[in-house]
Design goal:
Strand order of the largest sheet: 2-3-4-6-5-1-7
CATH architecture: Beta Barrel
Strand content: 35-45%
CATH topology: OB fold (Dihydrolipoamide Acetyltransferase, E2P)
Largest sheet: 7 strands, mixed
Structural class: mainly beta
Number of strands: 7
Order of helices and strands: HEEEEEEE
Number of helices: 1
Helix content: under 10%
Shape: globular
């Protein structure tokens, strides 16, 4: 049986990595969620020590993690550069 948690996890793409452009909103680095099915934007809250400037000038690789921060799904910086795709694309 499929649970609400499973469905929500799929629409939020928990565990997936994306190439995202960040902007600063109310002191938090935020990106539009790349999935049209997601009801939330992404708040990048882990791995911030990797950044030389906030927000970064170009897209970075972010992994969606399974928690919510300030009404947004949390993200973790995987790499400060996107080598595998365009903005909004999944990375491997």
């Amino acid at each position: 049986m499929t649970s609400i948690r499973d469905l929500l996890g799929e629409s939020l793409a928990v565990g997936e990595r994306f190439c995202l452009e960040l902007e600063q909103r109310d002191g938090t680095l935020v990106a539009a969620h790349p999935s049209d099915a997601s009801p939330m934007d992404v708040a990048v809250v882990e791995g911030l020590e990797e950044l030389e400037e906030r927000p970064p000038r170009g897209p970075i690789e972010v992994e969606i993690v399974g928690r919510v921060v300030d009404g947004r799904v949390a993200g973790r910086i995987v790499s400060t550069a996107c080598e595998d795709g365009d903005v909004g694309e999944r990375t491997e």
